[in-house]
Amino acid sequence: MDVLFYMMGGLKVHNKKNEFLEWMESIAIALLVAFLLRFFVFDVVLVEGKSMNPTLDSGDRIIVTKLNYRFGKPQYSDIVVFKNPDDPKVRYIKRVIGVEGDSVEIKEGKVYVNDQILTEPYLLEPAAGDYPKTVVPEGTIFALGDNRNYSRDSRNSHVGFIPISNIIGKAKLRIWPVRLITIFD
Fold first, then answer.
1. SS3 for 178?
2. Is 107 an active-site residue?
3. Residues with Cβ < 8 Å from 51, sequence gap 6 or more?
4. Model pLDDT for residues 35-71, shown as the tens digit of each residue
5. Is 114 helix (H, G, I), strand (E, B) or coil?
6. Which region holds residue 160: left if phi is over 0, alpha if psi is between -120 and 50, else beta?
7. Active-site annotation holder among 51, 66, 151, 170
8. Which of 23, 24, 83, 176 is most buried, by the most CB atoms less than 10 A from its CB?
9. Is 51 marked active-site?
10. CB 150 within 8 Å of CB 143
11. Active-site entry in 50, 58, 83, 94
12. 166 φ, ψ to 5°?
């Protein structure tokens, strides 16, 4: 009887050890998958500042997909997160206005892309100041904040044209605040 009890007790200890190891293995795999997804597939970004008002407000949290530009190029009106070419530690979020080969100009508060006035229903006010007609160099984009008069963007010499390699990803979904959940095209 004592031998049987010992064997049953021994089995229980052995099962508890196996269960603990299985839990640890599951947790390690989950952490690895989460890390890989966040590093290669998406990121959650906190919006700071008012340069993208009214589209995005300071304090909004958005999901940024990282795969869009691994398999394609930025498109007009995409909202992108990128590393500032002048200081790669600083990240900005702006709207793509021009892609390589486009001419971009701002005059009398209106943006012209390839000599056509850009329709921008997301703006609250026109841009103050002009920007000379310029061609977007190969491998770069021209991006502006939606709040043109409070945005440090491609018009600024410390930002300028953004190399496509500096783009972290495309804004896909606002997840915070919950009442403003928005899917971006």
1. helix
2. no
3. 92, 93, 94, 145, 146, 147, 150, 151, 152, 153
4. 776 666 788 999 999 999 999 999 999 999 988 888 8
5. coil
6. left
7. 51
8. 83
9. yes
10. no
11. 94
12. -85, -10
